[in-house]
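Please check this today:
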Amino acid sequence: TGPQFVSGVIVKIISTEPLPGRKQIKNALAVLAEVAYVDMLEGDTECHVRFNTPEDAQIVMKSYKEIQIKNNWKFEVLTGDHEQRYWQKILVDRQAKLNQPRDKKRGTEKLIAKAERMRLEKTQQTSKHIRFTDDN
């Protein structure tokens, strides 16, 4: 069914420089409240964070001064028309994701692909150079 509309759970983060990754934002905010989803593209200067409850969003808004100063971010809770449009975007994005054609592999094909990935990972790891530096 996907996420259900709840008013006051979307917080928009705006930054003067490109935001760090989705995981870093989630970790920074998870200290204060439980984050449901972070919607952003790599290198964006703004993103949307969906919380589970409006109370979680308010907790972040009340204690965001320290995060704002530390990261140079600006927060705002989406309301009204902006909120409606963003929820429409969520539904459209979700539908597009669900309608994507999937590459179906079965049986030995799947095992061969997995073994190949593991072999590639192992060769990449063994080919790393260890460099020692002398800081004296």
Remarks:
- The domain at 10-99 is CATH 3.30.70.330 (Alpha-Beta Plaits).
- The longest strand covers residues 10-15.
